[in-house]
Amino acid sequence: MRKQIKIIGSGFSSLAAACYLAQQGHDVTVYEKNATIGGRARQLKKDGFTFDIGPTWYWMPDVFERFFSDFGKKPSDYYELIKLSPAYQVYFGIKEFVTISDNLPEIIRTFERIEKGSGAQLAHFMKEAQSNYDIAIKDLVYRPGVSPLELITLETAKKVDQFFGNISKDIRRKFKNTKLVQILEFPVLFLGAKPSATPSFYSFMNYADFGLGTWHPKNGMYTVILAIEKLALELGVTIQTHANIDKIIVEHGVATAIVINGERINGDVILSGADYHHTESLLDESYRAYSEKYWEKRTFAPSSLLFYVGFDKKIENVAHHTLFFDVDFDVHAEAIYDDPKWPDEPLFYASFPSKTDDNVAPEGMEAGIFLIPLAPGLDDIPELREEYFEKIIARFEKLTEQDVKNSIIFKESFCVNDFIKDYNSYKGNAYGLANTLLQTAFLRPKLKSKKVKNLFFTGQLTVPGPGVPPALISGKLVSELIKKNL
Q1: Are strands 269-272 and 455-457 parallel, antiparallel or unpaired?
Q2: Confidence at 397, pLDDT banded by 50, 70, 90
Q3: Residue 427 pLDDT exceeds 80
Q4: How far is CA 452 from the centre of its chain?
Q5: Residues 6 or more apart whose Cβ sits within 8 Å of residue 97
Q6: How far is Cα 480 from Cα 304, in angstroms, rounded to an integer?
């Protein structure tokens, strides 16, 4: 039976869910509070430069392929993918960097050159990582997090010890060189938790990195949002921007309507891809499934201080993606997770999409994105943003041995206050809930409200977790759950 389904937010998970629900034959409308769609994956255009405001890494191409194939389509029907070569570069000091190739055999040779015997260790480690990837991404993450029994399969029973060990210990048992350890720990940062708090099973992220490679959609990640929007429109979805949700109306325990800009809009099903905590604040308190105390006790993935910088020249000695691990990782991690504060010496990441894509910067110029991971909820004032830009740009110049500061045409920033203002993000978090052992699968906030009938959730604070591929999967999971409940 055709139902009226109202979706709050237009990020990856909301748009994916809209496509699946329209495919089921429902009348689907997506409401976005901002002027443009995409949620955290929006775009900034200025003076001939184009920046992805949110995600800049395209990993797990198989998940995108699986999403589009559900509709008889391919990613190539909508956008062009470029495999990055090299995948990325990691700086540890002046003239001291490791370049990660676009293929595993070359990466194994790189490891062996740095630490004798580590090439064979990496080959063995990657076989296990690939096995975990096949179990996790091809099976487990496509389960809705309703029951702990979802995690019990013949394959996971053989790997039960990997749910109680952690990535950090596993890597350090196999590799002694600090640079190699940090490179192998890097991918799990996408899960939002410290490697020492991330179960060993999540080594599948290393296969996503070294095994499947790093890609760039021509014109940026926002191209993927536009692709899913086009698919949604082809399926009959309606999308409205400038539509701020004031309240979710519940009558006799059933979600029946939303109030947008003061106007009541009735619906048979309400689905929110907006911040989970914020969505529940739109309900009367008695209908909220999770208390403030619950949210306070969760381990959140970091927030970020981001800079979008236009340079009037080409930047040298960097790759499309470049990581700066020249300071103590553990000290910075402590400032995010254990003793939340602005880090004294932050690690940071820089992306120069114009190294790959001529369309994102004027000829002879460079588009640069700089990111510093931060604890959510920190004080965010212009003076601090400026202080930290000066810190990282000075280190950037020193490490890459070039003057870039005098070549800056403009810079824009985005930080905790912006995540709150633009996305109603809890404490300004950027990536959602971390994937720790106690925040995995059925232990995450539920896709289906425990207190309100016909109210559902999707996105990075629910199942399966943070990141763009999991967001697409979350949209599929919730659409199947809605179908089942209807």
Answers
A1: parallel
A2: very high
A3: yes
A4: 28
A5: 89, 90, 91
A6: 33
Question: Which residues sit opposite 30 in a β-bridge?
Answer: 7, 239
pLDDT at residue 208, as a whole number: 97
Mean pLDDT of the chain: 96
* Residue with token string 């209908």: 287
The Cα–Cα gap between 443 and 445 comes to 7
Backbone angles phi, psi at 216, to 5 degrees: -135, 120
Listing from the earlier edge strand, what are the strands of the sheet with 263-266? Answer: 245-251, 254-260, 263-266
DSSP secondary-structure letter at 340? -
Interior CA angle at 395 toward 45 and 385, to 5°?
50
Helix (H, G, I), strand (E, B) or coil at 328: coil
Question: Whole-angstrom Cα distance, residue 407 to residue 390?
Answer: 14
Encoded tokens for 90: 């990691």
Q: Cβ contacts of residue 452 below 8 Å, gap of 6+?
A: 248, 250, 253, 254, 255, 283, 287
| Dist. CA 58–CA 467, nearest whole Å | 10
Q: Which residue has the higher pLDDT, 292 or 191?
A: 292
Tokens of 418: 């912006």
Cβ count within 10 A of residue 393: 20
CA dist., res. 108 & res. 14, Å (int):
39
Q: What distances in angstroms separate CA 89 from CA 188, 295, 421, one per listed residue?
A: 17, 36, 33
Identify whether the C-beta of residue 340 lies closer than 8 Å to the C-beta of residue 303: no
Q: Which two tokens stand for residue 65?
A: 């392929």
User: How does residue 161 score in pLDDT terms, banded at 50, 70 and 90?
Assistant: confident
Residue 146 CA to residue 149 CA, distance in Å, equals 9
Give residue-wise pLDDT tens across range 366-378. 999 999 999 999 9
pTM over 0.90: yes
Which residues fall within 8 angstroms of residue 292, CB to CB, at 6 or more apart? none
Contact 371, 349 (CB under 8 A): yes
pLDDT at residue 173 greater than cutoff 90: yes
H or E segment at 311? strand 303-311
Q: Are 19 and 235 in contact (CB under 8 A)?
A: yes
Average pLDDT (12-41) is 98
Continuous H helices in 175-237: 178-185, 204-206, 222-234
- Distances in Å between the alpha carbon of 253 and those of 281, 284, 289, 382? 16, 11, 13, 44
Supply φ then ψ for residue 344, to 5 degrees.
-65, -50
